[in-house]
């Protein structure tokens, strides 16, 4: 039984009429104090037998005095065992202070009362005076004021953070935020449950280390996988702090759902990984495959496919789709989706748009069931479509830069640097197989007049036309390059004799001399060609190019619109 002691000087608002009654055998000073605070007065013998029972006591306990006189006081009021109170009498009642205990009313109701006893003036006195007062009306307020956990519980409940308190591994307090986080409707569904039931098995050791009740220091936030009441896992971060709850050691845990944060972090890491592939020059197919895998990892039950637009056809680069929607049917449609899974494929497709608003390809996701993508999935697709556009345009730019490093930007023919590589390769093959080849140096006659009369734009059109015609005169094994201005180098590989070189040269002259129409005006050109043949006209690239150049100037000196070999013997053969 729980007993609470209060000072005899504690305030008590109610004073009964019996408090004015004199008790001759009591200590006058103490009796005066107790009488001022009591509701009733009972006189008992040294053995605890009731001698008198006043009216106020009768009303308080619902018992008539004749029913209790002669009985032991402990029959109607539960008194503490001997030793719990400081008294020299046989009854265990305190002197100089109030004792809280319980009394049995006549109707069986138990009421909370407080008792106090005034010591007699003479040790030989056989009568003891017991003062009684009813505290049932104030007990509830007293209990609440004595409960120090009420302010703490109120603060916990008002907190937007999910807070739970557990003792010996079991929940003893949870706020509504914690209930929502763990998927429960109310705290009573979780009270008494083990905290480890809500934490993934792999994180049990870390949880025990950071939330042990004997740990005197609060733990910092750590990331773990927690489990809701229905078994679904979520990313969480938690921090623990030891405290006393209901006068016993406990642990307060603050838990936050960081699933969305982890998802965004994962997406950011994926973006960085893909951009790193772009920056380090990885193959385009590898980058697009990584993008497709990235989508499938973050969009369950989805198969991603990316195709590049090649003219009017598609070439699949990544993914495993069998039938992507034809985006060329609606190249500006932002969202294409099959509405009937029976007649149409369950695709969600979007175009990949470049910076210049051109369609670069198509990005599509196929779902295992006919459904619309979620908002999170659409945001993910938007990110990946942009990444695909960056990768495609980056590779296009890199390929263009590599192309321009070895090709002429105007005519798209190889430049002098690439031609010299071709020439060195031809020298190696010729030396290995003892096969001759020819180097042509072609210069357009009077091309400057076209620039001067029609303008440089017209001159560029003429150069592009001439380049196409010259390319059409050659075999696929032959090489042609624009050296700059109106000069071209031509390499005729695997030359059988000078007669074949003469035939190619004449064909080139004929193509150049055909009329060219520019801005509704006719332009007529001619060309002078110099020819050097390996090995007779040179054994290295510099000598061959120099001798071809000399032969070209000889052709110009002879009247232009003709070709000349470097060696006189070849010219004589032509003349013959």
TrEMBL record:
Superkingdom assignment: Bacteria
UniProt xrefs under Gene3D superfamilies: 3.30.70.270, PAS domain (3.30.450.20)
InterPro entries: Biofilm_reg_signaling (IPR052155), GGDEF_dom (IPR000160), Nucleotide_cyclase (IPR029787), PAS (IPR000014), PAS-like_dom_sf (IPR035965), PAS_fold (IPR013767), Rev_trsase/Diguanyl_cyclase (IPR043128)
Biased composition (Low complexity): 10-21
Region (Disordered): 1-27
GO BP terms, alphabetized: regulation of DNA-templated transcription
Domain GGDEF: 435-568
PROSITE patterns in the cross-refs: GGDEF, PAS
GO MF term list: catalytic activity
Domain called PAS: residue spans: 39-71
TM region positions: none
PANTHER family: BIOFILM ARCHITECTURE MAINTENANCE PROTEIN MBAA, DIGUANYLATE CYCLASE DGCP
Name the UniProt record assigns to this protein: Sensor domain-containing diguanylate cyclase
